[in-house]
Design goal:
heterodimer; A: alpha/beta; D-Maltodextrin-Binding Protein, domain 2; nine-stranded mixed beta sheet; 42% helix; globular; B: mainly alpha; MetI-like fold; 14 helices
Chain lengths: 250, 261
């Protein structure tokens, strides 16, 4: 009797470990797991909803800083698709032999300065961010958005003393939206979809273009779903959703 | 007294539970890049994070002592509904997800927060993103551990000592300082150590309320999180430092927790 309880407990634990195989019993292979850079959330949520209505694939997203997702994947996390906010982290996965097919670049993004509604501090250029007394928040240089922000500041020859180096770009956005920071450097798409902050554009000669590659992963349990998701992202429909969210197509 | 035999199945489950605790620790120790330990622990960034963590956690514990002991005293002397309400409010930060605590702190002490807006508009003081914010986040999360420990100590105190002191003419403050506090020393020290350990490990409320900047708000847990993605080796070593601190606490407190029978 007690032995049976132990066996049931252990098998239960093991079954819980392979969640995809367990759910596969009731709903045959319709779940697609997508690891995506935090900045992609507004667009990808819509693309996921579209995939559900057109192809009956249900998408589960894990949004985080690209660097967080990359370390999770190299540590053995299971996912069908990875969408990165830069090529470097995708290359890390390529080198680790985790990517199943050649990657495709599906979007680009530019940087913009996020400020409070109405721009009360009168911030118009990157140089303004060096103004003393201004609370500026950036993403940590280990985050793609933080790395790009550093490049843009270098292009503008500006030295900024940030109040905080956030662990993902959405952290920068929320600190500005909450009024705790006067300005932050984020993606154009973040400002388009946030609706709570204003954007100050950065001229092209100082700006940096973020390139977003996407690829199916070798650990995929649903390769067909992965392909369907990537196809939709690259399709006219998917590109329209991304453009509406502030990304630039390819 | 004869010891009860524990059924084999329960022993097996207990072993499984113990293994579940021990394996992650073994993972840390096995994977640690011991040959780089000295260089990595001695690096400027690591030392900065360790110093900041030490300063913030000790300050948070000091604040918790000054505010928490009186709070525990009041809690132990109230009863009925008032006591339940006070107790629930004090223990709330223990069960609240730390990130939620951080958001709550922002909404209270941020530039646009309930209290913070007065500070900012009146005096130009901004708390978020400062070391003070990191200390506040740690105090918020860790103080309940001290309050609960001290309150327990007060409840088990024999009231006759205080009554005797009062009968001999001691006033309220003198009774507290000369009789109550010394009697509470074991409860206070164990509560303070628990509080300090919790403050040292604080991550969620700190990153949300204080942000992340080396030397100002980047405590060891945040440094571990960032290093895990950029320099995994130093993340493992920093984790080992925190593990060593925890083990040291357990050893130091063994009389209290590992308890002589």
């Amino acid at each position: 009797m007690t032995k049976r309880v132990v066996v049931v407990l252990v098998t239960g634990l093991l079954a819980a470990c392979g969640s995809s195989s367990a759910s596969g019993l009731s709903t045959p292979q319709t779940d697609v797991t997508v690891f995506a850079a935090a900045s992609l959330q507004p667009a990808f949520d819509k693309i996921g909803a579209r995939l559900l209505t057109t192809k009956r694939f249900k998408t589960t997203f894990s949004y985080a800083g690209t660097q967080t997702l990359t370390s999770q994947l190299t540590q053995g996390a299971q996912a069908d698709v990875f969408a990165s906010a830069d090529k470097e982290h995708m290359n890390t996965l390529l080198d680790a032999g985790l990517v199943a097919a050649p990657l495709a670049v599906f979007a680009t993004n530019k940087l913009e300065i996020a400020v409070a509604r109405g721009n009360p501090k009168g911030i118009h250029t990157l140089t303004d961010l060096a103004r003393p007394g201004l609370v500026v928040v950036l993403a940590d240089p280990s985050v793609p958005a933080g790395k790009y922000a550093q490049q843009a500041l270098r292009n503008a020859r500006v030295t900024v003393k940030p109040a905080s180096l956030e662990l993902q770009v959405t952290g920068v956005l929320s600190k500005v939206a909450l009024g705790e920071a006067d300005a932050g450097i984020v993606y154009v798409s973040d400002i388009v979809t946030s609706g709570k902050v204003d954007g100050v554009s950065i001229p092209d000669d100082e700006n940096v273009t973020a390139v977003y590659p996407i690829a199916p992963l070798k650990s995929a349990t649903n390769p067909a779903g992965a392909k369907a998701f990537i196809d939709l992202v690259l399709s006219t429909d998917g590109q329209a959703i991304l453009k509406a969210a502030g990304f630039q197509g390819v | 007294m004869t010891q009860l035999r524990v059924p084999a199945a329960l022993v097996a489950l207990a072993g499984l539970g113990l293994l579940f605790f021990l394996l992650p620790l073994a993972g840390l120790i096995v994977r640690a890049p011991w040959n780089q330990a000295a260089a990595s622990i001695g690096s400027a960034e690591t030392v900065t994070a360790l110093e900041l963590s030490f300063f913030c956690s000790v300050t948070a514990t000091a604040i918790a002592l000054v505010l928490g002991i009186p709070l525990a005293l009041v809690l132990s002397r109230t009863s009925g509904t008032l006591r339940s309400v006070l107790r629930a409010l004090t223990t709330l930060p223990m069960v609240l997800p730390p990130v939620v605590g951080g958001v709550a702190l922002l909404l209270a002490f941020g530039r646009t927060g309930l209290v913070g807006s007065f500070l900012y508009q009146g005096f130009g003081i901004q708390i978020p993103f400062t070391t003070a914010a990191a200390v506040m986040a740690e105090t918020f999360v860790a103080m309940p551990f001290l309050v609960i420990a001290v309150e327990g100590g007060m409840r088990s105190l024999d009231p006759r000592y205080e009554e005797a002191a009062r009968a001999l003419g001691a006033r309220g403050w003198m009774v507290f300082a000369r009789v109550t506090l010394p009697l509470l020393r074991p409860a206070i020290s164990s509560g303070a150590v628990l509080c300090w350990a919790r403050a040292l490990g604080e991550f969620g409320a700190t990153i949300t309320f204080a942000g992340n900047f080396p030397g100002r708000t980047q405590t060891v847990p945040i440094a571990v999180y960032i290093a895990l993605e950029t320099h995994p080796d130093s993340a493992i070593l920093l984790s080992l430092v925190l593990l060593a601190v925890s083990v040291a606490i357990l050893v130091a407190m063994r009389d209290r927790w590992l308890g002589a029978p």
